[in-house]
Amino acid sequence: MGIPDPARRIDDYPHQFSGGMRQRAVIAMGLANNPALLIADEPTTALDVTTQAQVLDLLRRLRRDHGSSIILITHDMGVVSQLADRVLVMYAGRAAEEGPRQEVFHHPSHPYTWGLLGSVPRARAPRVRRLPAIPGSPASALAVSSGCAFAPRCRFAHDRCAEQPPLAGAGHLDACWLPRDRRHELRHSLDEAAAAAGDPGQRSVVVPETEEFE
Amino acid sequence: MTERGEVLLRATDVVKHFPVAAPAWRGARQVVHAVDGVSLEVRRGETLGIVGESGCGKSTLGRCLVRLTDLTSGRVELAGQDITTLSRRRLRPVRRDIQLVFQDPYSSLNPRRRVGDVVAEGMEVAGGRTHRQISARVAELFELVGLSADHVDRYPHEFSGGQRQRVGIARALAVDPQVIVADEPVSALDVSIQAQVLNLFADLQDELSLTYVFIAHDLGVVRHVSDRIAVMYLGEVVEVAEADDLYEAPAHPYTEALLSAAPEIDDGVTELAPERIVLVGDVPNPVSKPTGCPFHPRCPHARARCAVERPLLMAVGPGRLTACHYPLVDAEAPVVGRG
Questions:
Q1: Predicted complex ipTM
Q2: Where are the domains of chain B?
Q3: Which of A72, A208, B59, B274 has the fewest Cβ atoms within 10 angstroms?
């Protein structure tokens, strides 16, 4: 597990371990019986980035050496992008988009995924002054609408969204009523609107009229 | 981007040590070397990012800059005035010019006070405004940070995390500061809310010509907001550079490792790092810092000299400084003074 001097450290108490070592101890517990499936719920969220890199390496090794399957639950799009084979994007308790990692990250099709990816400031991409953020606040789990749960925050919401969209598609699935052939263009319009004027969360954005989708 | 002017905030050899209670049988008192000789300059209108992992001393440095904590030694100057040893009374007018935005929007607002009163307090202390003027200003500040003026009579628990952070920003802006030191202001927020608050920081800087010191651990966030960046490790600044230079060609091996450890999103457009460097071991304890270079026990490029001689922050190119005996960038480029 990469803990130095294991014969001595095995008698330590949790408070004598650093955060990264504790996380490794917990993963060791999870692996003790060579499970076929490991469910890791935000396994690196509390860790510093250099420690996180060590834990991600450990999860990769495990998958390779033991052939274990992993369900990785995280809010960190970078971690998903580095580790996952397939991705399920959830919003308000429902699946918004699902597909192979490269499909979802290179060609995201749900407006919520667009917003998530746009919200993350990148260390390597060219600098932008304003991020194409998602307006509003995350939906409350107490009052999920009978229609599309994301509609109240979606710039492309239209009448059809009052009805819950099914998770549909072939291989790469999404739950959205927007016409598939226009998704790329619509996503692009969000980036342009954010770059063009002030806070996209606050100010009006020039996006195609919603009636066009009817 | 923003205009950069003269040096507005200058830290010189700032040291902050905290005594730790050691078991009696160990004898001598131990100290945590939280900040260990940091020198920085912040120019008017720019954003200086301070990045590092937990325990590197970046928050303590932020508190030293606004004199929320007293320095062990060293000096902090704001607009040419030495504020290091000012009394509480003499510090009061200085506080109008430099304000702190805290990390945790849940614990940094008094839960028993209405948010309008929280924002008004700084103006009441500063004096010079009537009650009516203060109320009008509070309403104006709420609109400025994207809240409604109707929210002033609510309590902190009635707000979401992002809204609370907006209240914290309004409180900092209430006294018309020139400099805002923001300590991890978005790290407690959901990613979509984080983006909204980052956009707010950008809008406010444009509208009010603010100077920011932006402390964060998230490399993407720091690059997004900063003109220049200082990287900290174990209480020391190991590198200072223009944001683009730092990310394109780090000079210090720790910066290189930190950047390479950040998980990137492969979106099919952004070019990914060629290889990842995974450091061995954990950050050493700041009570017993390594001799020589603080990073040498984990450094993939360390040589014998690094274990004995502490490297000083030296120029390695225009506007670039690094504390490394064997920097990763060519030191031949002309020197343009301290960054």
A1: 0.82
A2: 105-176
A3: B274
